[in-house]
Amino acid sequence: MQVMEKELTGKYNFSIGKIRPLKNYYIMETDEGDRVLKRMKFSPKRLMFIHGAKEHLHENGFENIDRYICGKDGYPFAVVNGEIYTVTEGARGRECDFNKREDVIRASKTLAMLHKASKGYEAPSESLARDELGKMPVYLQKRLEELKRTKKMAQRERGKFDYQVLEYIDYFYGLGEDAVNKIYNSEYSGLVKKSRGEKSFCHNDYSHCNIICDEYKTSIINFDFCSYELKIYDITNLLRRKMRKCNWDTNEAKVIIEAYTSVEPISQEEFYIMKAMLQFPQKFWRVVNRYYNSRRTKRGKNFIFRFNESIGEIMYLEKFLKEFEL
For the whole model, what pTM was predicted? Predict the structure, then answer.
C-alpha cells in the first residue's frame, strides 16, 4: 500500500494518508477528506465515456453522482503498476431499501431525472462508447437458445433437480418466446431510432446498492455499465427488483410508474415493451444457465433455492401481467 500511496500522491492534487480496503474498493484518507479509490477493469477509452456521461449529467443539473476526480494530467484515472484506478468523493448516506415505499419513490423519481438529464450526450472523441440500442431482442433470443441447450443437458443428466427443470422449462421457454415476439412486433425499432436521436443513456445497473439515500437527497453511484440504451431498460430493472419483494403487486408497480412519470413521461409503446421485458423469464434463465454451466462441485443449495423462488413467482407474475396497465 505504501507504494500505491506514493504513486497516487504524485498524480493528484491532494496529500494521501492511509489506504484501507472496503468491499470491492478502497477508502483513501486525504487532506481533503476521505475518497473512494477503485481499481477498474475497463480501458482508458471506456472510462472516458463514463466520465463524459457523468460530466454531462452534472452540467445538466443532475449533480448527485460520484464524479471522477481528475489527476494533475487532467484525466479521470491513474495508472499504478499497470492497473487503472479512479478516485471519487463517494456519496454520503445509506443504500436504498426497496422494502420502504418512500425509498422506492425516491429511486424512481431520481432515475427519471437522470434519464432527462442524459439527453444530448455526445461521447468524447477519445472515448469508447457503449451502445446497446437495438440489441435487446437479440440478447433475449440468445437466452432462449441457452434454455434449449440446458433442456438437453437436463435430459442427459436425469437427476432430481434435472427432472424439476424439465417439468417447468417448456413453460418458461414459451413465456420468453412470446415476450420476444411481442418486442419484435412492437414499435421497438422506432423507439430505438428516437433514443438514438435524443442521445440519451441508461445507468444499466440500477440496483439498491447503487442508490444512496440521505435525509435530503438521493444519489446514484457506479456508472460502470452506463450505455446508450432505451430508458425503459432501467425502469424495467427497477420494477423487477421491487416486484420480487412484493409478490408482483400491481399497486406497488403503479407507485413506481407514477413517481417516474411525475418527472419524465412513458409512452404506451414504451410501456408495452417494458411489460414484455417483465414477462421474459429472466430469473429462471439465469438460475438454470448458471447451474448447468457450473462445475458439479459448485452446484450448491443456493441454485435450488433460487430455482424454487422463480417457480413460486409463476402465479403472481401471471396475475401481474393481466392487471398491470399504464
Answer: 0.94
Task: Report the CATH number at residue 244.
Answer: 3.90.1200.10
Q: What is the pLDDT of residues 277-319, one digit of tens each?
A: 999 999 999 999 999 887 765 677 788 899 999 999 999 999 9
- Condensed to tens digits (0 to 9), the pLDDT of residues 110-163 reads 999 999 999 999 999 999 999 999 999 999 999 999 999 999 999 998 888 999
Query: What's the CA gap between 272 and 88, in Å, rounded?
Result: 38
Helix (H, G, I), strand (E, B) or coil at 66: coil
E strands along the chain, which residues? Answer: 16-22, 25-30, 33-40, 78-80, 83-88, 94-95, 201-202, 211-213, 218-220, 227-228
Could you say which of 56, 90, 124 is where a domain stops?
90
Q: Do 61 and 105 form a contact (C-beta atoms < 8 A)?
A: no
Amino acid in position 184: Y
Name the 3-class secondary structure at 78.
strand
